[in-house]
Amino acid sequence: MTNSESKSFTTSQKGTTHDENGCHIRIVHLERVALAKRQALAEEESERLALTYKILGDPTRLKIVMALNDGEMCVCDLAAFLGLSESAVSHQLRRLKDLALVRQRRQGQTLFYALNDSHIATIINIGLEHIREGGRKWI
Amino acid sequence: MTNSESKSFTTSQKGTTHDENGCHIRIVHLERVALAKRQALAEEESERLALTYKILGDPTRLKIVMALNDGEMCVCDLAAFLGLSESAVSHQLRRLKDLALVRQRRQGQTLFYALNDSHIATIINIGLEHIREGGRKWI
DNA sequence: ATTATATATGAACAATTGTTCATATATAAT
DNA sequence: ATTATATATGAACAATTGTTCATATATAAT
Prior knowledge:
Two copies of one chain form a homodimer. In chain A, strands 3-5-4 form a three-stranded antiparallel beta sheet. A two-stranded antiparallel ribbon of chain A has the order 1-2. By secondary structure, chain A is an alpha+beta fold. The first copy, chain A, folds into two domains: 15-40, no CATH class; 46-133, Arc Repressor Mutant, subunit A, CATH 1.10.10.10. In chain A, a hairpin with a 5-residue loop joins strand 1 and strand 2 (24-27). The first copy, chain A, contains six helices and five strands. Chain A binds a DNA duplex through residues 26, 28, 58, 60, 74-76, 84-94, 106, 108-111.
């Protein structure tokens, strides 16, 4: 998007190359593949971004995130809300915390969890717009 | 966010209830749990939204999406770009298509894939902002 | 010190997932 | 009609994942 390089390749520059194992691979649009490689994120960053979406990609965790969007909650309330054991919720909160999606605040024996930053609500809202406007091919 | 109901619960309204199996469950903040339940999305919608993020939550598929952000690509170019078999790419494109994240256009024997709508790039960009600003606890 | 409460954690296991391999389909060229 | 090209699809299998169960830890109350 930020890049001014050509956006459509109608000219077919067919070619073939070999991968690191010497295997023969087919490339129809050499320049387009080269562009994709130049623009690609660092592997480390792709992995982290994918992991972030994967964490949001489980119904239990997503429901936790959406519930926290209305304000902080403690573990046993989340368990009651979800109809799951507190252990299961705690395991999922740990994963959410590891990816900086939620943070915790202790008050006595109780831990209150909250969304960690405003990006998360934004991602959810755009995701909702996406599913509400389009493809009916659910699963 | 859009709701004007109370956002923090300092008063602890302890209570217990029973789930549909008659099991005893603990709720520390009754009203907070009730609020979460009122605000929750329909189950069907939560499932779909989670599935959308899950699909973005695999490095291969995320790389496909990010590559398509620079313009359409055919299957064999994506395979070359990713260093994967065309079969593997085709399987993943099917999942992306099932969730309306990409669409396809045929030109002869070649199928060109492109992002299906502008939400997708937005979600990626906000996700990137999130991982670039915060938590260092990677995995 | 002992007990209760709230939550975290490790191991285990069924369920889900991503890739490979073999094969099928769709279009184009001869 | 036959062959080549580009992609799709089903089955199989190793790898990953979410929950449960048992146990550990941290704080508070007595």
